[in-house]
Every structure is written in structure tokens, then in C-alpha cells.
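2 proteins. here.
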Amino acid sequence: MVFSRARLAASAVGLALLTGCTSAAPMVQPTATSAPVPDELEQYYTQELDWSECGTNFDCADVTVPMDYDEPDGETITIAVKTFRAADTAQGALFVNPGGPGGSGIEMVENISSYFGSELLRNFDIVGFDPRGVGESSAVRCYDSAELEEYYSLEFDLETDQGWDDYVQALTDYGDACEANTGELIGHVDTISAARDLDVLRAVMGESTLTYLGYSYGTLLGATYADLFGDNVGRLVLDGAIDPSLNFTEVSTGQVRGFERAYRSYLEDCLAGADCPFSGTVDEAMQQTIDLVEQTRDTPVETSDPDRPVDDASLFNAITVTMYSPASWPSLTSAIDALLADDGSQVQFLSDYALEREDDGTYPEDQGAFRAIDCLDYPVELDRQTSTANAEANEELSELFGEAFSYGEPGCATMPVASDAVREEIAAPGTPPIVVIGTTRDPATPYEWAEALAEQLESGVFIGYDGDGHTAYGAGSACVDEAVEAFLLEGLVPEDGLAC
């Protein structure tokens, strides 16, 4: 599928085992006290929070942190915290992060029963927070809804000099808007700063060590925390892990492989059912998908809104977002069925969901956090030849996903702040055991990444889940759920290499 072009909408949607779930491994015991706090940061670590009730069993507060930890007496920002109080007497606080980057821990804790088992809810105060740059915390602001609607509709022919120049200019304009609407904070939303915020949160919540459950990008945040604050690590679970040593291009390539593998798993499941819109083998169904994407590019399909027909970008968004959970596969099947009957409304609904677009055409205000955080974490250069070569290599891996997941480097190279981050392995020496989980057909954070992180961490303990979807805890595996909860609640360390 040689498009040699970019659609900004598509780029906005952002990789045989034996079952056994018990272990006689050692217990993790939290340390009694946390590491000393630098004098210049003591005011942040010892602040008293002004808590207020914000719903049944919820309390909310804002935590003050320095915008720039190199200038602790300079400008400050706030981190919004929302805590779900334990049903029983809490044995401590469990901090959570849903990923992204840019995912809201506030929203995560508001949907408490969708994520956490009843035993965790009875025994932990679940602490959700919006990392710096996100949501209700001091946040990145870029385009408003009208500007985003126009931005996502742009299309560029990257085979031409003019198309490339227009693409770079559109990305530059977006980055300039982020800087204008966010201010100096735009240069301080990196993961290291967020991990330092997390240690302040731990302290002001009265926890001597951090108990933490992080998904996806939240695993990078958790691993970074462990590397910076090893003496303060309690029980950490990193689910759907990222390999911190990968550079920008390697992450994109891993996700191309991950989504290709995930979509083939969907097709295999679909073809085994009675109502699949595809036919033949998995390879034949894959080609039918590619043909359908090309068809919607040339001839968009009408929806219930005559001004918004479904094109290839919308279909691609619908496919991509439904790969995150096999529970969404029937929705994709139904949407493609309807699309083949000349009704693109269901596909458009899924695409809008992927982009967080409401029925009235509005978008959340903090759309820019994903790019701003990523771009500070992953240094890139603006090089058309390299970007094109990467796209061509990715298309060799996946005709469906390869090019669509490429050409991301200019998005970071045109941001108004440059990254000086170094992508390298994280060992976090001297910490207690850290549980790392990988799912074999995870589209967004491939299984191999979790294996790599568990190997890098000096105390990494790996759980492998043979399944579909993005992340494993709470996804239907009793084996994973029991191992995670026994670790968090009792300190029982799973057997390294546990296969679920």
C-alpha cells in the first residue's frame, strides 16, 4: 500500500505457554523509611494538602511541584490527585498510571471497577494523578477544537517537495501553538520530571515507599522512578512494558510489528465466526482489508452526517483503536459489515472515539500532551531521506500499518523545544523485585519490549500472558490477576518467567 503521504488523523491514534499461577518465591517487605530529601526540595515534600471530597469515596487535592527541578525556587506547577478510599482499612496507597503518554490517572480512578480487582479496592487507597502536562494538572494546550478538526483533515503527498514542505509547516505551526498556549511548561513535561513529581506525591501521601501499577507508558514512568529513587521502591507492577533503550524509530517499527500481529489475530478470530465480512485465509483477508482502505481513500463512504464521509484515515483509526482490546473486535466487525453496505457511520464512530472527538465536534483541551512528552523523551532530527527510508522499511514489515505508523520524526523535530534525553537501558540496581508483564499479541507495546525491560532491570520478574489486547492485568486472565494481586497485597513475588 504505497501511499507516500501522511494523514494527521491517522498519526494521532499513537507493540505455546504452560499455565501456572502459584509460587513459593520470597516476600517483599517495604523499607521503614524513604531516602533523604534534598534541602532545596523539602518545602515540596513536606507540604500539607488541602483535601476535599469530590464524589462518593473520592478525595481530591492539588500538589505543588517545581516546574524545573534544576530551579526549585522558580516557577511552580500543580499536579492534580484523586484518591479512591479503600473499602476497608487501607494498608497503604496504590499509585496508578494508565499510560499514553498523556493518559489521565484522574479519569482512570474515576472508572475504578473497570481496572482493579475487589481485593485491591478493599485494601488500598487508589491514587490517580494527572502527570505534568496532562488534564487537570498544569497542562499542555495546543489547538482548540475547531483548529484540531481542520488539522486532522489535512493530507500531504510526501513524494513531492511541496507536499513534504507543507507537512513540515503544518507540524511546525502545531508546535508553535503548543508553545504559545502552554508557555515555559512545554519544555518540562519529560518523564524524568514526572518521575520526580511521583516521589513528591509518595511523600505527601505519607508513604515511605512507592506501591505502583503502571500500564504502557506508565511502565516507562515506573522504571524511570525506580532508577532515580531505588531506595523508595516498594511493590511496582509494570504492565505492557516499554523497552526504555529503544529510540524513536525503533519504537515505531516495534508498533508496526505489534499491530500487524494483533490484526492478524483479529482476522483469524473473525474468519472462524459466522458473520465475518472477510473470507478465505488470513492473508487473503488482510489483502481484502488493504483493498478496502484504498477504496475508501478513492471513494469515501457516506455516514449519517453528509458532511463527514468515511475515508481511509477514518477506517484506519477504527482498525487501530479496536486492536487495543479483543472486546472491541465485534464492534469492528459490525462497522466493516456496515461499511461494505455503504454505511460508514459505525466506522466514523470508532474513529471519533480514537481521536476523543465528541458528537458536537469538540475535543479535549489537552490533546498536545502526548506529543510534547514523547518529543522530550525521544531526540530526533528533521531528515526527509531518513524518514522516507524508515517508512519504506516499515512498509516491508506491514503493508497495512507500515507507512501509517511512520513519518513521526518531523512531528518531534518541529517542536519548539529539543530533547537532550539519552535512550538507554534501565537497570535500577538495588531495588526490591519489580514485576514486568508482557502480552504475546499486544499491539502497542509488543511482548518483546516487556521481556527486554524485565531483563534490563536488576530485580525484574517477568510474567508472560498468552493473549490479545494491550496490557494483561484485568483483561480476563485469572493467572495474571492472582499473581499481581498477591504481589501488591501480600508481597508474594511471582516465579520469574511465569506463563499465563
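next one coming up
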Amino acid sequence: MSSIQSALTAIDNLVWGPPLLILLVGTGVYLTLRLGLLQLVRLPLALKLVFGRDQGQGKQGDVSSFAALCTALSATIGTGNIVGVATAIKLGGPGALFWMWMAALFGMATKYAECLLAVKYRQLDSNGQMAGGPMYYLEKGLGSRWLAKLFALFGIGVAFFGIGTFPQVNAISDAMTISFSVPREWTALVLTLLVALVTLGGIKSISSVASKVVPFMALFYIAACLGVLVNNVGALSEAVALVISSAFSGHAATGGFVGASIMLAIQSGVARGVFSNESGLGSAPIAAAAAKTNSCVEQGLVSMTGTFFDTIIICTMTGLTLVVTGVWSGDLSGAAMTSAAFAQGLDAHIGQYLVSIGLLFFAFTTILGWNYYGERCTQYLFGTRAIKPYRLIYLGLVAGGAFLHLDMIWLLADIVNGLMAVPNLIGLIGLRHVVIAETKAYFARGRDVEPEPAPQTV
């Protein structure tokens, strides 16, 4: 068993090694240049579309653009925003946060492109719901059905055995046991019932819950982080300076921190940044395809704000909290490090509860979001009749996840998660001219002033 685990660890390190990270960031850099820094120039328009009054009235789709964004964010904003940031800074020092920003900046262009393609190539399934994502633009745009099937297979694997179930359920169970002394059996029962109530209603039910819970949980967590930063406002400017300087000089060993080179800061920051916002992995386009919109460009703009909210805002809050309190240089890591930062910056007991509550919300919504992603992948491979069996299997895995500690399964899921990106990035590179042409045509018509309905997607 140990040899199998060692082999899986080696494969995981290979999958998430420099080649994939370079491909992910390189695709974002290319799209950024070809689209004329769209993620910066058009960010005000994107935010206007997110919070505007027009949320899909009279347009084709299942849910509003805002609800589709919240569904994607429900899967994206997760334990990685708490644990992942701490892991990156523990490995690469404060400079890792800067490289998370860079990954997010270029990742916004990638997220824009993949969600634009999701709407352009989406179609109605036999239940009358919108179906789209990498599976459809790989098949219908790129003309590669085998790549589409490969992506869908990886997507189901991640939903069943990785991000969607076991890590999230364990995070919730641990938080409820440690902070509130709730037995795992009760946590498993209540969690399974809650997930069933939401997910059995399909995308409309999931998006309805996500559009209420996601903004609340994000604001709750940001407010907690701001409380720590306000209490340490004198150290804030020094912390920001440390983040920037460490990004280009590395950081020597100090306290419990073993030291990090520039390359380690880059690798850890980019890897955790990509893992957090999922830009280029191909998950968010599945939710974007359900949006009520007649413009693939507008939905691309709305969707790219997900990376902005996830990494530029929430991960930054976590990172600065860790740096200003100085806990990053101690012996703690992961959620324990973040808990220590809140305990030191606010109150020992309050800090523990805040992190636990944040983990509860983040993990629960990730379960909901990945249920939908896996469902769409299942529907693509096996048809709409396979959706109900898929949901039952998913619920069974959620129920059993509280009692499992299967490191090898999580390693396997991490591998499959990384492999999802490969066919998706092939599609983005192969269809880059479509993205560029659609973008130029949209803004040439002056749509950034008054968006108008585009032809319906069938």
C-alpha cells in the first residue's frame, strides 16, 4: 500500500508540476495579450453586468448570470481559500501571495475565454435544460469527441472522489467535532439530508441556494479578515512590502519557517492560486452554460469576475491576515495556521469559531457546486436517464465521507483534477481565434455601452 501511495504521490507531483502550471499560466498570458488586457480594461463593465438589474429577463437559459456565477463560486470558493493560502505561504513564504495574484490576473483571461466558449457551444438536453462546458466546445467547436469524453470522465472522477465529496465532508466533520463537539454520525446525517434537499432540485435549486449563501459567506469571511487587519493596521504596510519583496528575493529561514527561494515562492503561489480559482481547469464553464444570456461575451465577462472575487479579494484577505499576525513564520500549517491568525488578531475562542464556520460554509457550497459539475459530465456521457443514479451515488459518497480517511483516494482525485485541465486547455488554444473574433465583434458594436440581445444559442 505504501508503494502505491508513493507512486500516486509521484504522479501527482508530475501532474501538478511546472509543465502544467506553465501551460495554465501561459495560456492566460497569451489570451491577455491577444485580448488587449481585457480583464483590466473591461473589469468595470464586468462588475456592472454582475450587479446590474438585467439578470436574464427574456433570454435563453436556466438561471440568471449572477446565479450561474454564484454556482461556479460555490465550487471555487472552498477550503483552498483558507487552507490553500496557508499552505502556499508556508512553502514559499509571503512572496507566494504575490504570485497567487499573478496567477489570478492571467487566470481571469482564461476564465473569460472558457466561459465564453461554454455559452457559444451550449445546447438543450432532452429535459429542456442547458448543457454546456468543455465537453461541448471540444466536440462541436474543436471537433474532438474523444477529448470531450476524456474531460467528462475526469470531471465525474473529481466530483465523486475528490473535491466534491471526501475532503469537504471531512472538513465539515472535523470542524463540527472540534469546535462544537458534534458527533460525526449526526454531521453525516444532517449534511446528507441538506445536500439531498438542494441537489435533487437540479441547477435551479442549487443556484438559488448558492446565490444566497455565497455572497453571505464571502462577506462574513472578509469581515472577519478585516477585523484582524484593522487590529494590526500598523503592520499592514510592512506586510504588503514583505509580500512584494519576498516575491523577487525569496525569504530566509526565520522562526519555524525553513526558508524559500524565488522559484519555490513562484511554484507554490501559482499552484495554489490555480487550484483555488480553477481558471483553466474547465469546471466553471459548466455552470456558465446555464446562464440566461444571449451574449457569450457578456457571460465570459461575468464569469471572469469569479477569479477576481476568489483570489484577488478572498485569498488576499487570508494571506494578509497570516502575514500581519506573523503566524506564517511559526510551526503551524494549513487550517491550524489560519485559526492561529484569527485567534491572535481577534480572540482565541472567537478566532477558532470563525475559521470553523468559514470552513463549514465553504465546504458545503463546494459539495453543491461539484454535484452539478459531475451531473453535467454524467449527462454528456450517458444521457439524461443517468442523472438520477448519479445523484444517489453522490449522496451515498457524501454520507460515507465523514468516516473515511483515504489518502490514496484524495491523491488520485488530485491527479484527475489536474488532468481535467489538459483537454480543456487544448480546446482553449485550438479555439482561440473564436474567442478573439467574438470579443472583437462584440465591442465593435459598442456593446460595452448598452448591451443588446444577441441571437439565441440552440
